[in-house]
Design brief:
- With 427 residues, this protein is α+β, with helices and mostly antiparallel strands.
- Helix content is 35%, strand content 30%.
- The chain has 12 helices and 20 strands.
- The strands form 6 sheets. Strands 3-2-1-7-12 form a 5-stranded mixed β-sheet, with helices on both faces.
- A hairpin with a 6-residue loop joins strand 16 and strand 17.
Length: 427
Amino acid sequence: MSQSELYVSLDIGSSSVKVLIGEMANKSLNVIGVGNVKSNGIKKGAIVDIDATVQSIKKAVDQAERMIGKSIHEVVLGIPANKAVLQPVKGIVAVNSENREITDDDLDRVLEAAQVMSIPPERELVNIIPEQYIVDHLGEIKDPRGMIGIRLEMDGTMVTTSKTILHNVLRCVERAGLEIRDIYVQPLAAGSYALTEDEKNHGTACIDIGGGSTSIAIFQEGHLTASSVIPVGGDHVTKDLSIILKTPTDQAEKIKLEHGHAFFEDASEDEVFEVPVIGSDSTEQYNQKYISEIIGVRLEELFELILDEFYRLGVQDLPGGVVLTGGMAKLDGLPELARNILQTRVRLFTPEFIGVREPQYTTAVGLIQYAYMEDVFYGRVGNGGAVSGTAKIEHQEVQQPKKQKQPKQNSESVVTKAKKMFDRFFE
């Protein structure tokens, strides 16, 4: 793994579209390009205007391209968890080779066998997440390749989503001139990156509070076990401030970021600031304590809805607590408010890479990390470096590494196959 691999992630959110260009070498990420623009055409995680969404994607891509002076052609796409359903699957195959040694081909076949179960016509496969492999009734195996056996089984989780939601996202990406390398559901990528191994094993909720919605990912025994989306986010707080303070929305957003505080008891009465009144030249004075009450009411409602979701998902105990991330997570006092309402341990997660040291980039970074770790597992890295191995970034259009990205291998992941199936949908 001496050569670096280039990955580009695309995170389409309700409030912003983020494009991240990362260089992976020896499991270490170096962010070399970032694009972040206000998103138009997306409400509560769903696309409501394809043309506006396409323009937002193009602007974010353009920003990232300018930072590195090269063109982006292929992305790792994050799919919103709206309408996502997780269900257990099992694949069983006989080991093919004469000497009964398990190979990449057997891994590929057992993943295909897990997809045999019927999927409703209105739903589409996004991911299959292997949880354990079983060789001749010996379980809890992470990688069975090289072992000797007769029968190989795989227990995993299938993630499906609404065909309408998924194909609208794919259509936007296609019209923005991009090809899709891999697709992952956003809470899977964000949670896999934000949580420690202990947190994933003990039982932890990763809560990503975005602009138009809040995603919940429950990890237990090392795997994603449940996911949900609540259509409430930071934009609702901004709207509340705009209405009550009688100020324009952009001013309300600025006040929220600069003076906002989520926990009323810790807010300051001495921090006073002026707020322009909509439709006039006058301003009003408020202190942080006052707007903290407005913000706190909405966020208390959000955390109450999260508790309701925990109950609906059958989550009774979270020994690992809660990890907060997403654009709203950087608001002062949010962890304290969450601890007060959720009555569990709460910590804030922020990526530690230069250029993306804000919680809003957790999903974008997670998409790159997750795609890379899958490529390492399936042996798809190091086959020609960044030009032919992963997300393609090149100076000249003469080269066509897309066609020779890598020979078709038995170790090809199921998500790549799913992506090709989606591509055929548009042909």
